[in-house]
Amino acid sequence: MRWLVTLLLGAVGGYLASRVATRSEIDEFQRELRSGAKPVPARQVPSVPQPEPTPEAEGIDSTRIMLIGAAVAAYLGKHAVVRRIRVVGHRGGDPWALSGRATLQASHNVVQTHR
Q1: 20-47 per-position pLDDT tens digit
Q2: pLDDT number for residue 39
Q3: Minimal CA–CA distance to 72: which of 64, 38, 91?
Q4: What Rg value do the Cα atoms of the chain yield, rounded?
Q5: pTM of the prediction?
Q6: Is it the case that residue 94 has pLDDT exceeding 70?
Q7: Is 80:69 a contact under the CB 8 Å cutoff?
Q8: 82: nearest Cα among 70, 92, 94
Q9: Is residue 108 part of a domain?
Q10: How many domains does the chain divide into?
Q11: Which of 28, 26, 30, 6 is nearest to 18 (CA)?
């Protein structure tokens, strides 16, 4: 029981100490603002806008863009705006990767039980 009292007193003491420290920091900040001292400006990193590639530049023609938009609208059941389309990968690709994927998928033992 004594450890519980010690724990509670330690927690309350820690809370009060942090509250006093925080309050003193706020008071100091308010004094600086009232005195007219200018705060040190934060260093701003200039942002360089990166141009987004257009779907046509990635090899997607306007017909496919329209079909993708229609498919999204049909799936969601309402009008949707497709903001970005990017090509993730191709079905072909590296034969070693295809072989590795086929081996990995074949190694999974999928047992179906009929109820």
Answers
A1: 667 777 788 788 878 876 656 666 666 6
A2: 59
A3: 64
A4: 31
A5: 0.33
A6: yes
A7: yes
A8: 70
A9: no
A10: 2
A11: 26
Q: State the number of CA atoms in the 13 A half-sphere of 92 facing the CB.
A: 0
Domain that holds residue 68: 56-85
Give the residue ranges of DSSP H helices in 1-115. Answer: 2-35, 62-76, 95-107
85: amino acid identity, one letter: I
Domain membership flag for residue 93:
no
Does 42 reside within a domain? no
| Widest CA span in the chain | 80
Tell me how far apart the alpha carbons of residues 25 and 99 are, in angstroms, rounded to a whole number: 63
**How far apart, in whole angstroms, are the C-alpha atoms of residue 97 and residue 103?**
10
Tens digit of each residue's pLDDT (9 = 90 or more) over 43-88 = 666 666 766 666 665 677 888 888 888 888 888 888 888 888 877 7
